[in-house]
Write a structure and sequence with these properties.
The chain has three domains: about 120 residues, Butyryl-Coa Dehydrogenase, subunit A, domain 1, CATH 1.10.540; about 100 residues, Beta Barrel (Butyryl-CoA Dehydrogenase, subunit A, domain 2), CATH 2.40.110.10; about 150 residues, Butyryl-CoA Dehydrogenase, subunit A, domain 3, CATH 1.20.140.10. The strands form three sheets. The chain has a four-stranded mixed β-sheet with strand order 1-4-5-8, with helices on one face. α8 packs antiparallel against α9. By secondary structure, it is α+β, with helices and mostly antiparallel strands.
């Protein structure tokens, strides 16, 4: 469905092509039919709806920005609009698409051999196979260069040992892209998840991303053939290229959560009566709604501008940091403010804003914390790295 007029104050919709609007409408219809009816229950019971995976593949949303191998080859803006609508449903569903497409599939597509691409990508694009991306460790989150996972050569094999944490989809994946230290620096490996020595354990008792799966991974003398290595993934730069794809999607997706929260608050304000009239007529409520809408419009313009730069091949890493830092930070504030309009009812799963706000706490942390993105931008401004 097109963005409602009451949230698009400056006609951002007119900046989109008919094809872009059509794609957005098809994903929004999918969200209305397949995600909204069940998301409160999935979140409440901490269930990832795996039955959606093949449907997402049928829609062409898995690895949709990649070319060939069954992938849709859509533009960066089209991908952004798709994940915007998915995250309006729930961050956990958008996260699945991001882990599958922007991380695991992108790693194989950019850095894998032709044989590796042919083996994994068509099934992943169709939703027949699930992938995961194992970079973060218990003691190496914002500092992946300090990872302790190692891979050593033993004849014609690689042997991997180490631990990973917060690895999306690992317990239901068919293959995991594992990053490890070698004598030749950090390298990426494709590890089928039925390999002896690999254990993936879902992390429980989460207050965020409950309709999603994140895992601890243990690698104990995991033996892989020599051709399990991604031949073109040399150094952390290869991993960061994948992370930047995921960060780009967050710029759009966070605005979907914000918009959904705003619309929920607006609808409630129009129908909720106190002191003999709707609370939408109160000046303080209108100010909250106006402030939310202004930030959504600014965030959408930022996302669209960065998407056009990406499609032109000129998007720079610090610009992705600008989008991720700003839009997620503003989206959390919007969701929390929307909850205040809902009053006490807003703490229930009958309404979306607090669910979105909780999810965005994870989004704010993964793919680079506020602090990391601040320092990336600071380095760009000053020419001085604060990481050294």
């Amino acid at each position: 469905m097109p963005m409602p007029d009451n949230s698009d104050l400056i006609d951002i919709d007119s900046l989109l092509t008919p094809a872009e609007r059509d794609l957005r409408a098809s994903v929004a219809a999918f969200v209305d039919a397949e995600i909204r009816p069940g998301i409160a229950d999935w979140f409440d019971r901490a269930i990832f709806p795996v039955e959606l995976v093949k449907k997402l593949g049928t829609l062409g949303l898995l690895g949709m920005q990649l070319e060939g191998y069954g992938c849709a080859g859509r533009s960066a803006v089209e991908y952004g609009l798709a994940v915007l609508e998915l995250e309006a449903g729930d961050s956990g569903i958008r996260t699945f698409v991001s882990v599958q497409g922007s991380l695991a599939m992108t790693a194989i597509h950019r850095h894998g051999s032709e044989e590796q691409k042919q083996r994994w990508l068509p099934g992943m694009a169709a939703g027949d196979l699930i992938g995961s991306f194992a970079l973060t460790e218990p003691t190496a989150g914002s500092d992946p260069a300090s990872m302790a996972t190692v891979a050593r050569r033993d004849g014609d094999e690689w042997v991997l040992n180490g631990s990973k944490r917060w690895i999306g989809l690992a317990s239901i994946a068919a293959v995991t892209v594992v990053w490890a230290q070698t004598d030749d620096g950090v390298r990426g490996f494709l590890v089928p998840t039925d390999t002896v020595g690999l254990t993936a354990t879902p992390i429980t008792r989460k207050l965020s991303m409950r309709a999603s799966i994140q895992c601890d991974i243990e690698l104990r003398d995991v033996r892989l053939p020599a051709d399990a290595i991604l031949p073109n993934a040399k150094g952390l730069r290869a991993a960061f290229e994948c992370l930047n794809e995921a960060r780009y999607g967050i710029i759009w997706g966070s605005m979907g959560a914000a918009r959904d929260s705003y619309l929920a608050a607006l609808d409630y304000a129009k129908t909720r009566e106190q002191f003999g009239r709707s609370i939408a007529s109160f000046q303080l409520t209108q100010r909250k709604l106006v402030d939310m809408t202004l930030e959504i419009n600014k965030g959408m313009l930022l996302a669209l501008h960065l998407g056009r730069l990406k499609d032109a091949g000129s998007l720079e890493p610090h610009q992705i940091s600008v989008g991720k830092l700003n839009n997620v930070r503003e989206a959390i504030a919007i969701c929390r403010e929307a909850r205040t309009i809902l009053g006490g009812n807003g703490i229930t799963l009958d309404f979306s804003p607090l669910r979105h706000a909780n999810n965005l706490e994870s989004v704010r942390t993964y793919e680079g914390t506020d602090e990391v993105h601040t320092l990336i931008i600071g380095n760009r401004i000053t020419g001085v790295s604060a990481f050294d």
